[in-house]
Amino acid sequence: MMNYRSGPPRPDDGTPAVRARDLTVVRGPRTVLHSLDFTVPHGQVTGLLGPSGCGKSTLMRAVVGTQAKVTGTLDVLGHPAGHPTLRTRIGYVTQDPSVYDDLTVRQNLDYFAAILDPGRAAAARRHENVTRAITDVDLTTHTDVLAGNLSGGQRSRVSLAVALLGTPELLVLDEPTVGLDPVLRRDLWQLFHTLAAERGATLLISSHVMDEAERCHRLLLMRAGEILADDTPDALRTRTGSETVEGAFLHLVDAAVAASRTKETSR
Ligand SMILES: Nc1ncnc2c1ncn2[C@@H]1O[C@H](COP(=O)(O)OP(=O)(O)OP(=O)(O)O)[C@@H](O)[C@H]1O
Question: Which residues of the chain have pLDDT under 50?
Fold first, then answer.
């Protein structure tokens, strides 16, 4: 079992980085998030776990402010989600890497760095930030390789490096380890914990791989547009009498199914 220390003391007053109350999202004809209440604490790694289609990406899009038809209250770093001042404070990596195939790794990062921090006076700082981001994601040996010639996992790491450029306070990462080999997955999880512990970043990371849950400080377990649990891995295992988070998740799913059956039969 891994035990991670959470980040350094934060200047905040205990207000969570993200606070959702009655968060509801409608996509097309369907309500895909059903009146969710949850928080994401500062300076920690929070995992958003659940099966494919349960609403993880939709929830993340709501947090970063790119999702339409969101109702309820959703506060992010002290502002309503989508507030313009949040743009430079949040790093968001989608499931599809957003990189230019005809540019090298460094050129991709130089391009995004110039948008974030423009002007000739910032050139040295940009260079430093780009080099740091490339090192963070372990792509120093591929700096001059065209993104189009990288593997899927390497391209996702370029996307992650772009998100790290502005040293964001909140990183929202949608399945960042999908398709990566075990060594890279381990290294990336170490990076996530370093970002939380040493830079005080808050990370919200989705995954449908339950063993990744064990690597998080806190977990939001989702199923069918609902939050089944918002707790630490230890508390979840203890509460459900399970040895693994996967066992705890299955226990909670069974309990939720049984509760909805009881509700239906008593109607
Ligand atoms: N444009 C749309 N219209 C209607 N329903 C949609 C639309 N887009 C997504 N959905 C539905 O919303 C639900 C949540 O989708 P979402 O992409 O958030 O799930 P997810 O948990 O991130 O899945 P995955 O792990 O496969 O990426 C899914 O059941 C999906 O079918």
Answer: 1-9, 11
